[in-house]
UniProtKB/TrEMBL annotation:
<dbReference type="GO" id="GO:0016788">
    <property type="term" value="F:hydrolase activity, acting on ester bonds"/>
</dbReference>
<keyword id="KW-0378">Hydrolase</keyword>
<dbReference type="InterPro" id="IPR018228">
    <property type="entry name" value="DNase_TatD-rel_CS"/>
</dbReference>
<protein>
    <submittedName>
        <fullName>TatD family hydrolase</fullName>
    </submittedName>
</protein>
<dbReference type="Pfam" id="PF01026">
    <property type="entry name" value="TatD_DNase"/>
</dbReference>
<feature type="binding site">
    <location>
        <position position="136"/>
    </location>
    <ligand>
        <name>a divalent metal cation 2</name>
    </ligand>
</feature>
<comment type="similarity">
    <text>Belongs to the metallo-dependent hydrolases superfamily. TatD-type hydrolase family.</text>
</comment>
<keyword id="KW-0479">Metal-binding</keyword>
<feature type="binding site">
    <location>
        <position position="8"/>
    </location>
    <ligand>
        <name>a divalent metal cation 1</name>
    </ligand>
</feature>
<feature type="binding site">
    <location>
        <position position="209"/>
    </location>
    <ligand>
        <name>a divalent metal cation 1</name>
    </ligand>
</feature>
<feature type="binding site">
    <location>
        <position position="159"/>
    </location>
    <ligand>
        <name>a divalent metal cation 2</name>
    </ligand>
</feature>
<feature type="binding site">
    <location>
        <position position="6"/>
    </location>
    <ligand>
        <name>a divalent metal cation 1</name>
    </ligand>
</feature>
<dbReference type="GO" id="GO:0046872">
    <property type="term" value="F:metal ion binding"/>
</dbReference>
<dbReference type="InterPro" id="IPR032466">
    <property type="entry name" value="Metal_Hydrolase"/>
</dbReference>
<dbReference type="InterPro" id="IPR001130">
    <property type="entry name" value="TatD-like"/>
</dbReference>
<feature type="binding site">
    <location>
        <position position="96"/>
    </location>
    <ligand>
        <name>a divalent metal cation 1</name>
    </ligand>
</feature>
Length: 268
């Protein structure tokens, strides 16, 4: 069985197909789908979807792209919503949080500073409640790592990892897993494919980031958690492994990183 550690199943691209998409993913062997929030306006949405679909869980956080519109009341609401969710077996951690220095407007000094402040505050919330984090690290790996060294949290995933081997090793040293998905299915994505093939297998987890980062056989169409097994087969081929063996290993890695996931020792 496979675990999709990052999927925006609440996105508008799925419309009213969410139950069918989740069901088809389950039929294909995707035992669990993690749906991260992106802002206060969808905290309740991701919770409701996770409770409506048998194979879904959710995380709560403020995505860096939505930080410009956020204020301190959103951080207060996040803290309170997390506190209220601690008894919810479908709630697995803090995310999607982090930094984005790819979008030009977000690199401006004032927004860069605000991104870093919101990221740091959300790390503190994760530390306060002893929760793992789902990290957005687009063109920002070193600064994300700087804050992780300053505000230690217990495990998590660097989502859509596309950094250097040195940066990968530092995330791993800090107890994090690295998320790989549709990007590694493109033959010309040489660096991502090298990372996926050569990093320690116990550091890897799988994701779709649906509806984004579509694999090569779908691009530029809508991605879906249904594609995770085939994405996993790509990783298995890169590593010379049987897909079933890789499914077991990456699912165990996901449960280690996100210890509230169903089937994790601490979730039982």
């Amino acid at each position: 069985m496979w675990i999709d550690t990052h999927c925006h199943l609440d996105a508008a691209e799925f419309g009213d197909e969410i139950p069918q998409v989740a069901a088809r993913a389950a039929e294909g062997g995707v035992a669990c789908i993690v749906i991260p929030a992106i802002a206060s306006f969808n905290f309740d949405t991701v919770r409701k979807i996770a409770h409506a679909q048998a194979n879904c869980t959710y995380a709560l956080g403020i995505h860096p792209i939505f930080v410009p519109q956020a204020d301190d009341d959103d951080l207060d609401l996040l803290r309170q919503t997390v506190r209220d969710a601690l008894g919810d077996p479908r709630f697995i951690g803090i995310g999607e949080i982090g930094l984005d220095f790819f979008i030009p407007a977000l690199k401006e000094d004032s927004l860069r500073a605000k991104q870093e402040r919101f990221y740091g505050e959300q790390l503190r919330i994760a530390r306060e409640f002893d929760l793992p984090v789902l990290l957005h690290v687009r063109r920002s790996q070193d600064i994300v790592l700087k804050h992780l060294r300053r505000i230690e949290v217990r495990q998590g995933i660097a989502h859509a990892f596309n950094g250097s081997f040195q940066q990968a090793e530092e995330f791993i040293r800090l107890g994090f897993k690295l998320g790989f998905g549709g990007a590694m299915t493109f033959p010309r994505a040489l660096q991502i494919r090298r990372l996926a093939a050569e990093l320690p297998v116990d550091a890897l987890v799988l994701e779709t980031d649906s509806p984004d980062i579509s694999p090569v056989w779908v691009h530029p169409g809508r991605n879906s958690p249904e594609h995770l097994p085939r994405i996993g087969e790509t990783l298995a081929a890169l590593r010379g492994m049987l897909p079933a063996d890789l499914a077991g290993l990456t699912s165990a890695n996901a449960r280690s990183a996100l210890r509230r996931l169903p089937g994790s020792p601490t979730s039982l």
